[in-house]
């Protein structure tokens, strides 16, 4: 039964643009775990899915959405998913934990995470030190939104334990938590951030949607959303990983050429959080922080390591092979195959 399905899928795929029989996929049916699929952080993943780029590569993917990147990672560690669409720095942490993971297609050039305070509960906010003892909402504890909070706190001389971290997700729940005053600050992404800004429920402290500001905050290029997988998955399924990278690179290039109307047509209605104008503003704010070609910057792994090491003394002492946490070989081949997307 499965054999017949693969043959039928292969014949159908052969008629799609970009598919060749030269690269037989080891695992055409695979699962990608993502933490907050509606976020602009993961827009390339959504575009690759919605515009049929994964199917054009012969892939039949299941994309499972979680409340945050740490939970998406847990799904791959637990064996219920093959690949994570998540934050790059998790690959550094996983090597430190002895579970090697490698990033192979970049979606975000900068984290796009915004840390802001609640004007209702923190009307007198002046510096990051004022966050001591406060409740800060993140997508999920341990996710990249939490890492940014820890990093900004450390620069202000505060420890992670000086605040209370609350998981609020990446959608309407996060917006409601701020508006109702359940949290004093939030570390989140678009479209949540733009929605809160438009309604006057957020005062920005740090904005890493701006690539230059992200580099100032982290002291170098900080790769963000990407596809990463256990090294063992890449070793066993190189053609499958290549097909995924091809689709993401095509999506990256499509996004850079797209206008707001194209994006609105391409994403599911639910992503708009009930306000198209907000989503368009969010897209325009995030576009510059999305990857143009899927490749990782040469110093990106070093920046991610330093950011994590600044709040983790054990990690700071570790000797890691940062070249092993990412590879550009898949994205380079994808660019050669689709020079114009």
Give structural notes.
It is a single chain. With 341 residues, the chain is of the alpha/beta class. Helix content is 43%, strand content 15%. It has 16 helices and ten strands. The protein has helices at 2-14, 43-50, 53-56, 69-77, 89-96, 144-155, 172-179, 192-198, 211-218, 231-236, 238-257, 260-266, 276-286, 300-309, 313-317, 329-337, and strands at 29-35, 60-66, 83-87, 101-106, 114-117, 135-138, 164-167, 185-188, 203-207, 225-230. The chain has a five-stranded mixed beta sheet with strand order 2-1-3-10-4, with helices on both faces. It has a five-stranded mixed beta sheet with strand order 7-6-8-5-9, with helices on both faces. Helix 2 packs across helix 11 (238-257). The longest helix has 20 residues, at 238-257. The chain is globular. Mean pLDDT is 93; it is low at 1-22.
Brief account:
The protein is of the alpha/beta class. The chain has 16 helices and ten strands.
Helix-strand blueprint:
Blueprint: H1 2-14, E1 29-35, H2 43-50, H3 53-56, E2 60-66, H4 69-77, E3 83-87, H5 89-96, E4 101-106, E5 114-117, E6 135-138, H6 144-155, E7 164-167, H7 172-179, E8 185-188, H8 192-198, E9 203-207, H9 211-218, E10 225-230, H10 231-236, H11 238-257, H12 260-266, H13 276-286, H14 300-309, H15 313-317, H16 329-337
Parallel strand pairs: 1-2, 1-3, 6-7, 6-8
Antiparallel strand pairs: 3-10, 4-10, 5-8, 5-9
